[in-house]
Fold each of these.
Amino acid sequence: MLTSRTKNLYQELILEHNKKPRNYRVPETSSHQAKGHNPLCGDKLDVYLSVDEESSTISDVSFIGDGCAISKASASIMTTMVKGKSVEEAQSLFKMFHDMTTGKETDVTEDQIPSRLRVFAGVKDLPARVKCATLAWHTLDAALQGEEKISTE
Amino acid sequence: MLTSRTKNLYQELILEHNKKPRNYRVPETSSHQAKGHNPLCGDKLDVYLSVDEESSTISDVSFIGDGCAISKASASIMTTMVKGKSVEEAQSLFKMFHDMTTGKETDVTEDQIPSRLRVFAGVKDLPARVKCATLAWHTLDAALQGEEKISTE
Amino acid sequence: MSQAAIKTETVHNPDQIQKQLKNLRDDFPILSRKINGRELVYLDNAASTQLPKQVIETVSAYHEFHHSNVHRGVHTLSQEATDLYEEAREQIRSFINAPSLKEVIITSGTTDAINLVSRCYGEPRFGKGDVILVSNMEHHANIVPWHMLAEKTGAEMKVIPITDEGSIDMDAYRALLGPDVKMVAVNHISNALGTINPVKEITDLAHKAGAVVMIDGAQAVGHELVDVQALNCDFYAFSGHKMHGPTGIGILYGKEELLKEMKPNRGGGDMILSVSFGEITYAGLPAKFEAGTPPIAQAIGLGAAAKYLSGLDRDLMYQHEQNLLKYATDKLSSVPGLRIIGTSPEKTSIVSFVLDGVHPHDIGTILDENGVAVRTGHHCAQPVMERYNVPATTRASMAFYNTFSEIDALYDSLLKVNELFDVNQPN
Amino acid sequence: MSQAAIKTETVHNPDQIQKQLKNLRDDFPILSRKINGRELVYLDNAASTQLPKQVIETVSAYHEFHHSNVHRGVHTLSQEATDLYEEAREQIRSFINAPSLKEVIITSGTTDAINLVSRCYGEPRFGKGDVILVSNMEHHANIVPWHMLAEKTGAEMKVIPITDEGSIDMDAYRALLGPDVKMVAVNHISNALGTINPVKEITDLAHKAGAVVMIDGAQAVGHELVDVQALNCDFYAFSGHKMHGPTGIGILYGKEELLKEMKPNRGGGDMILSVSFGEITYAGLPAKFEAGTPPIAQAIGLGAAAKYLSGLDRDLMYQHEQNLLKYATDKLSSVPGLRIIGTSPEKTSIVSFVLDGVHPHDIGTILDENGVAVRTGHHCAQPVMERYNVPATTRASMAFYNTFSEIDALYDSLLKVNELFDVNQPN
Ligand SMILES: Cc1ncc(COP(=O)(O)O)c(C=O)c1O
Ligand SMILES: Cc1ncc(COP(=O)(O)O)c(C=O)c1O
């Protein structure tokens, strides 16, 4: 029997995205990219973006990498969330996600958080896993800021 | 009021030799000499010997140096004990003194120990002070062995 | 004292041996902790072992009754602290059978000890053309200091390969040994694979080639009877926290003739005979390498740990750990999709493994939900991960206080992992 | 908690202040020890301070309930240990008002910390023609590392003289400061003289001359409110055992921009991002300087000590210590034949003295017979002894838990010393 905390963390959606990650590929061209590394558990992933300069819209996003279920599912879900969004929208999703997983008090109510992000709410009780969930988002942010490498020590 | 342990350690004879050390001088000539140093308390003394080669007798012995009452009195009393003695006798006195002050079990009974040495018996209860009492003797031994410097770390 | 109870007649049945050892669990307060509502199953002993109450209480009693700075005081507390500190050194000396107290240097841990050797022995002696051999299964503590030394001096670090099962490739080692080899640095037991290395043979071969030998004994002291004289190694390093002692303390054993020639490591109080601005005279051994106020309480705690272990029936403990190893190896091998990394015939009670389709990090979290504490990751031995081409492993490491039923708990939790991730299921 | 009790209205009368602090003595188990049948009078706080039960119990509780290796574990105990360890770093940061946690490096003590700076900052940067200034009142820990560095790099160590009363000669200091001066290394408070140095002014002058400043704060943290931002020094070092914390732990504060540029000190686990035999990438701050398993229990203990001190009324404590200093200075000055060494107007509660005709070592023994613990010797500050042309001194050093009647006991014992040695008697 699994404890409810485990079940809460490893929700169906996470397990499913872990098994079949979306946008898992190296694109032929990209305008931004960054490498993320979590030395704590060895998770590594590359995020690729195509940003339309005029409209400042993310026209394509993909990733590849090795990692635990949480980090992989988070990367996969992230790509599905930011594709087609403006850079600004992507960044505010990052902030929302970050605040939720680190348990920060904000004005955002639960139902304002997209359900696909809400499945990661459980990691806030598992400090060792927060970085797994946020690695992809940190890497996205780094790519958008023009940094090439980040490490979530 | 002084405790009996203090009184036992700082006997009249020790206090008296501390005040008026015997053979406290640098001789004009000497056949052996050594510098003794106890870095723990900064005690330093030089021992000078004239040994008659044929008879292997210590014809003269003196010392100078800075140190606590125990080390100064011990040096002074030592000079009075070994002057005129053979090298062998001096070394067996050292052994006897060393065994007594370090509390080593031996066959030597208390009344076999010269009374001038017995006044130092109290240091065996004060481990921090054993080296003060033995420094002069260690230096004597070093001089006889042809070593020039010793340090009782 | 529960220790007396086990010095009885020899028993051979694994369950009986366990029964004899089981009351020792009461000495370890943490073992009765609950984790997420379950009994703690502590299988992370290779990272840090737990402390018996005898050690915890020795440290507290020191603080409550005897604490003072050592070495230079005449007052009673200072003398008591000095005596306790130096008695601890003697307990540790006897624990590893070092010939002399001068050869037992108190450091802050294995890492500090290996860095000391790299710096004070290697740095003034090594240069271009010199070779330092390390094995492919070393902990970072026995790689990085040599890497830094090589960068500084121009010496070269070469790697002794390991076999697929995780043993040192002795033929390759022999082939690497040449007159250019100045240092061989190898662990006694690998924390990532569990392999017990033939350190006596490795040392003899190195000596024949004229090299000096540094053994990283971090994983050995808690399990093996270590006799540095029998091993004849030049340096041997270990940590208190791997042998049921405190953190913040470790030991460097070194042969006196080598330590004597070496420059001091850190400068400060207690490591000098005299200081004036023109000239400084260094103290003799072991003080030369113990600058400043030493880890007094920690040394006394480590002495207590050495005494605790020495009071136990080490053969029985070893037998029990080997029984646990065999039981765990058999049981885990039957978990679908599980592959053990490190299958040397000579192993300590460490089982490192990967599970098809599940990242170790996820395994670690799910096991923890069930109260089972294992380590996941690269275990500070990234070259081992590279060698086996895995990003990380899950590692269960047992001490004498572990039990067969704790292995069962590990096994059950692993089945749950497969179930949750819907992998490695019978079809 | 007895701590709350003292945060009452301000009092100015020395006896009243003492009364307010006196119940804190109950926090320190060792203070009720008997020595040779007498109450312990512990006046050796400059060597090591005593631990309150709050610290002793924090360390025990860690061992009994939370012990595990930190940083790389996902299981609950490892997480708890990591949280406690990092909370301790925060407590320490806040204690010295460091701007960032990255600037709080956990070391094994002041000596380790100063050696780190000498090695990782000085060694790659200093060379022939460069000058390191140290004062004439430094502890060996702040001399020997610079001496070793000078020998290695060809840089020169120069000495800032001190005045007869034991203050830094600021005019001489100004004159020594030139473009060749790369480092100024000075203690905040002298352990041998008690002098409180104007470290802010010293730092500002050094910065104007382009030099970097290392403050040895070993004696300050237990007495002064230390604010590294206000001091604006580049490095600040101290030890746990001088501020009612455990042995085996110390802190190096360093400005981030300097620490960032510096090479790591020791190599090992936790201070790297990745290791393969070809290439090693070092971790960021503070991990880069914390190789290996850190002193986990000791850091947690030091955090508890910082918390304990922060919970007290530091102003009141300071006032009481100054009252003790004044009382002791007056009282001891009336002992025939006694001369105080170190009479700077800015002093902490340390009284170092010599007594005509009696060697400090004998004084120490006789005082101990009366239960009074003082330190005798050179206090690891031989250049100070040379400066005053004394072989050694006797030093009484007070903490906030000491009392006026303990000074009386010291005074009475000193009269007995005169009596026994039949010196300094009225004729
Ligand atoms: C002024 C001063 N600096 C440095 C030290 C060295 O501290 P530690 O021995 O804890 O490394 C001490 C204490 O011994 C000291 O008093
Ligand atoms: C084989 C081995 N070597 C060295 C070390 C480093 O020991 P420490 O971290 O106590 O310095 C460890 C443990 O972490 C180890 O397992």
Amino acid sequence: MNLPEWLSTIFGGPTFTWAHALMLLIGGALIYLAVAKEYEPVLLLPIGFGCILANLGMSAYAEESFMRVIYKAGIETELFPLLVFIGVGAMIDFRPLLAQPSLALLGAAGQFGIFGTLLLAAALGFPLNEAASIGVIGAIDGPTAIFVTTKLAPHLLGPIAVAAYSYMSLVPIIQPPIMRLLTTRRERQIRMDYAPRPVSRVTAVAFPIVVTVIISLIAPSAAPLIAALMLGNLLREAGVVDRLSKAAQNEIINIATLFLGLAIGATMTADKFLYDPASGIQWQTLMVLGLGLLAFVVDTITGLLFGKFMALVTGGKVNPLIGACGISAFPMAGRLSAKMALEEDPDNFILMHAMGANTAGQLGSVIAGGVLLAVVAGMM
Amino acid sequence: MNLPEWLSTIFGGPTFTWAHALMLLIGGALIYLAVAKEYEPVLLLPIGFGCILANLGMSAYAEESFMRVIYKAGIETELFPLLVFIGVGAMIDFRPLLAQPSLALLGAAGQFGIFGTLLLAAALGFPLNEAASIGVIGAIDGPTAIFVTTKLAPHLLGPIAVAAYSYMSLVPIIQPPIMRLLTTRRERQIRMDYAPRPVSRVTAVAFPIVVTVIISLIAPSAAPLIAALMLGNLLREAGVVDRLSKAAQNEIINIATLFLGLAIGATMTADKFLYDPASGIQWQTLMVLGLGLLAFVVDTITGLLFGKFMALVTGGKVNPLIGACGISAFPMAGRLSAKMALEEDPDNFILMHAMGANTAGQLGSVIAGGVLLAVVAGMM
Amino acid sequence: MNLPEWLSTIFGGPTFTWAHALMLLIGGALIYLAVAKEYEPVLLLPIGFGCILANLGMSAYAEESFMRVIYKAGIETELFPLLVFIGVGAMIDFRPLLAQPSLALLGAAGQFGIFGTLLLAAALGFPLNEAASIGVIGAIDGPTAIFVTTKLAPHLLGPIAVAAYSYMSLVPIIQPPIMRLLTTRRERQIRMDYAPRPVSRVTAVAFPIVVTVIISLIAPSAAPLIAALMLGNLLREAGVVDRLSKAAQNEIINIATLFLGLAIGATMTADKFLYDPASGIQWQTLMVLGLGLLAFVVDTITGLLFGKFMALVTGGKVNPLIGACGISAFPMAGRLSAKMALEEDPDNFILMHAMGANTAGQLGSVIAGGVLLAVVAGMM
Amino acid sequence: MSILSQALWITALGMGLVFAALILLAGLMSLMTRMFRERVPSPVSTDSTHPSPDRERGEKARAAAIAVAVALAEQEQVTARPITPPQPIIVGAWQLGMRTRQMTQKGEMKRRG
Amino acid sequence: MSILSQALWITALGMGLVFAALILLAGLMSLMTRMFRERVPSPVSTDSTHPSPDRERGEKARAAAIAVAVALAEQEQVTARPITPPQPIIVGAWQLGMRTRQMTQKGEMKRRG
Amino acid sequence: MSILSQALWITALGMGLVFAALILLAGLMSLMTRMFRERVPSPVSTDSTHPSPDRERGEKARAAAIAVAVALAEQEQVTARPITPPQPIIVGAWQLGMRTRQMTQKGEMKRRG
Ligand code: NA
Ligand code: NA
Ligand code: NA
């Protein structure tokens, strides 16, 4: 080999265009949101860094890239979102929901945004698989969104995961105006009776098993997600496997979260996210982000409306604010509702009800994700 | 696609028969034993949950099942039992054995149940590989049983692992009557001289290395198991790699245990465990469980008899009770023997001797497992 | 099958020759260095144990060996050194360097040993890929050496990793005589102004991102290494992902280190390291160890010479001792320089400058490794 | 079928199934809490929604505890970290009694483990 | 060969090998404890089985310590968790002296690490 | 090209690139520390190398602190464990002030997490 050839081999690296540079800025912006604004930092920081790597030749699609190894090991196999869910399950206490089962309905109402957005996306010309993946941002639950998107439209993983996690962080900014708009001051002041049924240890242990069985039979596509979430919860409630419960809440979720974020970020190559030399600017990215925001808003609206409906039916015994927690976004949405009720009336404590509705939303999101997978896959 | 087709695609999920329902109950029963009775909960709980998942379409044999991903990653490669052994090794102190080397013989005597049961199973018509896998329940050591069964008869993994771990928990129930039956009160009252040789740090560090070399040369099939156990012990005794020793005793063993249990449970599909539409009821499962129990009993008997033999030979200087610890079931069997000696005579402390015999049993079980693999594989 | 055949199947295991026995002793010697001398025990102990396993039939090259599974999972994919680097990055504080950017030059000067040794190895007849792999011992940085060697000459992994880690431990023995020889007492007594620029949090967070981008563009082959190191550092400096930073510094690095060491050791088979029946004694192993030591010495010399040059240029404001920290070997080299300055003058505190130069050496080593990969791969 | 009518069918069936599943779960939860009661009679009776004087005092104590919980929760929100929900706080006053037995047990394990 | 006679051969050879391996290990252990003695003269002499008065007192102290260990071990058995054997207790009185140096070292590491 | 002249080219280009990369990084670091200053005025002014009396006192305090750090670092060297550099010690006196805010923040997290 002669010198000029050698030099061109060394320096003729992968092309770096303005689109790549812009993607670096986008990755940097995600890291900024994570570090300075603390928007879901444990996910947005790895996603941002992964995005930077993806546009420096280390994308999930590049041969011989270590990000590809991680992507294949954890995203293609769907293990990472499931491992995260094992940890999340080990951190959730379903007792507030078990003590007030009727709150479960709110967890269903808060999922309408998924389907509403799917409708709109289909109307805008997205094919069904993409429309469904965009809709699932309305689950407002990262692992569910990633799990469903991996199966239906993996090329959209980047924008969908970013939307899912960013909007989750934006709960305290997006929800309050809608809540104030849709509820009267009087409704927000409704106090809720505080008479939960006692929840025995047997119930707490049996619950995750029963949910796994029932949901797996009704919606087999949701089975892995619900099984992982409930496995974590079983480890927590069993009380005899403290080692495993702690491993789920620490080692397992931390490692899975870090690599999940990196691998998702590594799908955000310039050509998929911003500009494809073949097909031009990827407007779909902006549309995904926009439609995802809409899904969030619609979720909140239908949740609140259903809350108002329950207030009506029960003769004013339900504070409609807790309808907004049915969207999932656990546990921020639950805290926010309780806080808004307190703002109207410093003696109005609805935190337990809000957390019940919020955990119902978590269940509802997973179920909706599974149902969506099944019905859309059946249609295609 | 028209509507009826679509609906049948969605709702025509995997068949769910009475056999699957029964398996869910069996999984639930395992979880009950884990949670309420605390029988080896760190393993029986994940096995039980894995069993439930296996019969809801997420078995280790189902295509695209995440349990299959875990099964292939950790059981087929045999990594999980080895990782568990690294952790177990880091938790075992071989000093009581090193200080009284003659106790090692008891660790050999306590393995006869393995071969006795193999004989009986062969007589009952089981092929050699299955008979050997059933016999290895008599190792009374989970990872060894799983390692050997994975190589010889992976379709029996479920019942064999369940038997191995359940019987390990039943030590305090199964062993005492046999111990009382086979030993006289006088024998149980034998006090043992307490004059151990001092064990230097050099010995403690050299021991795991020497054992690895010797056993790998004698029984190459046992090499991975003994290497993993001894690696853990070396990390512990080295005293300079505290980080790694702690990682072995925590992160590594916890994560491996959780997924080992799940993956084993995921092999317990209705057709393998209970009822195969092709071949009818799987009576072999019951026979495995029954023969496994027998292996346990035979282990205890031969261990005790050898203890009596040692008492005879030494002129009454060995308490035959410690023969029962040679079966492995570390460390319950050791504690139980010491306790029974105390019950006969509140001043009779044989805990150190019992733990020595018990760690010898742990070594003996691994060696026996390796020998079994070699001789059976050579015969087939 | 008849009895004699059966017995020969069982006992006719892998051949065990004097070369294997010698390798067991070498493995034992590495463990001795780790335990008794505490030379990088977290790596040399697993390497030593892996070496023993490799020569008992469990090498990284043996079919169906669990060490092969680990090797393929973590070395062939290059994940293990990268995971170690994520942890190392989370433990490094680049502020001393950021506060005194001119020290970065020392991190370049300390890499000459890599190329000088490559030259000598090429002159001695080693092919380019082997010569480069030998040279990279001069990075005095384990993960870099392993990463580069895996790509260029994986059959030399064993001796190169052993050399890299042993010599890293020998910093306090190898460097002082060279430092005394090359510097005058007066030079060693030079006090350095202590007026670092303040380093804001923004700088500390932006630094790892900027370095990743710049180095990935200049030397794409170094990208994965630098990205892993800087990811770890970003997790540390972000201050909002404490969970991930701790996971990187504990679980991730501990597990990766253990299996990295084992897998490296598992490549040290007798035929690759000592004696190949086909090609005779493997003198190259000794040459690798010797040339590696030379690389270390040359690094130290050029580092010191550049330190003297900086002292000259700045008119005696730089203590040449800190030139010796540019070799990497973080953080021992930094501590040693500071200590030697103190020995000459108990009031001469140059620890901050030394640590700055030492972190520059860490960066320089990674960059040099990447550059080496690129230029050598381009030449072949 | 046009893509839009497909989407409408998906929406109808999807929301229907989601509601059906959660209604079923609500029923099962209700059943389970009734079936598996703690054997020790709970001091808080479950059917009276009209508080007795004694009850009311407990209610206020609980309310106060929850107020503290909310205050703490709010503080936390500043650095919202949803992956580590501060469950112990959410659990709050009300379950404190119920779970004492279990937690004691866990505590012992931690001390030993 | 019939399957049963195969099984008999397996049993004979298997138990033989297991005994052979453990007898070999016992010999090596015996050799190692003799070869590698702690340099510091151990206060407990290893060859006297007839205790001197002084020795006996130590013996009793040790016995008492073991009694405590057994009592603790029994308690533990209630929640038998074989995966985390409480080694420090099993090690008990006897090795306490021997391992002090090592443990001090480890302790320092923990404080630092 | 002979292998040796190849090696020479590799050396020349390699060392050139390494120096180029680190010079570039040095420039960027210099730029960054200038650009992103802490908004709170740092008590230690960055441009004066001639210490004022007050400054000098701080300098001595810092020097003392570093002496302790070095002493500790030396001790550590006995069991050199490069994988766990005792950063808190290395960071030493000088950055203590600067990082207080950040560490407080981290500390809070630890307490909460
Ligand atoms: Na939702
Ligand atoms: Na056994
Ligand atoms: Na270097």
